[in-house]
Amino acid sequence: MGQRIAFDVARHDAFQVLLDRWGDPDLLAAKRGGDFGPDSLVSNRHAQAARRVAEVQARYLRGDTVEADPEIDEDEDVAHHA
């Protein structure tokens, strides 16, 4: 996997515009704390991941320090769930 980069508000805002236009509406609803329809193909696991992303992004936007969890090997976690 790639290296972590510093959170950049301008980059985040620009990507949110792309998500609003092209992102999955059900995942966006989940990310924003809403519900998705009963016909949605979004799994609960993916919806929860979208919510976790939103929580971390909100912490960055508030100016909180967000540290990586040293207990989680991201490469191993991705391989385990592939």
Summarize the structure.
The chain is mainly alpha-helical and 82 residues long. The chain has 4 helices and no strands.
How would you sum up this structure, described in words?
- This protein has 82 residues and is mainly α.
- It has one domain (9-67).
- The chain is built from four helices and no strands.
- The radius of gyration is 14 Å and the shape is globular.
- InterPro entries: DUF6925.
Task: Give structural attributes.
82 residues; 59% helix; DUF6925
Tell the overall outline: globular
Total number of beta strands: 0
- How many DSSP H or I helices? 4
Taking the alpha carbons of the first and last residues, their distance comes to 14 Å
Beta-strand portion reads: under 5%
Task: Give me the secondary-structure topology.
Elements lengths: L8 H14 L2 H7 L12 H19 L11 H8 L1
Helix pairs in contact: 2-3
